[in-house]
Amino acid sequence: MDCVFCKIAAGEIPTSAVYQDELAYAFGDISPKAPVHVLIIPREHIGSLAEAGADKRALLGHLMGVAGKIARQKGLAKGYRVVVNTGEEGGQSVEHLHLHLMGGRQMTWPPG
Predict the structure, then answer these.
(1) Catalytic (active site) residue 62
(2) CA distances to 57, 62, 79 from 54, in Å
(3) Which CATH architecture group holds 4-103?
């Protein structure tokens, strides 16, 4: 498989880990949209949220828990945003499920 996020999770492409465990890996976004912008990926390849079936509920919950843990570690007590872009029209640019954790500034609405 030629998935950049799979290669990152496997350590084949070096990044500075923000968090890692047996299910998830988190690292800074290379094009941050906020002072804190972390990508959280499952180690298992899942193309998008649309491809995550009922059997992935525990993993999806784990990824959200990781987002909360990182937000606390980064001091985002005033608030933060967690975004999952899905599909071309949803703005997904890498076909591997990932969460964007963004904070450190006032988030606006609508986002885009």
Answers:
(1) no
(2) 6, 14, 29
(3) 2-Layer Sandwich (3.30)
Q: Is the pTM of this model over 0.90?
A: yes
Return the domain boundaries, the chain: 4-103
pLDDT in tens, 50-95: 999 999 999 999 999 999 999 999 999 999 999 999 999 999 999 9
Alpha helix segments (H runs only) across the chain: 4-9, 57-73
Q: What is the DSSP letter of 75?
A: T
- Sign for the pseudo-dihedral over CA of 88, 36, 53, 15: positive
Query: What is the b/e burial string over 56-72, where b = at least 16 CB atoms within 10 angstroms of the residue's CB?
Result: beebbebbeebbeebbe
In the set 37, 45, 62, 98, the catalytic residue is 98
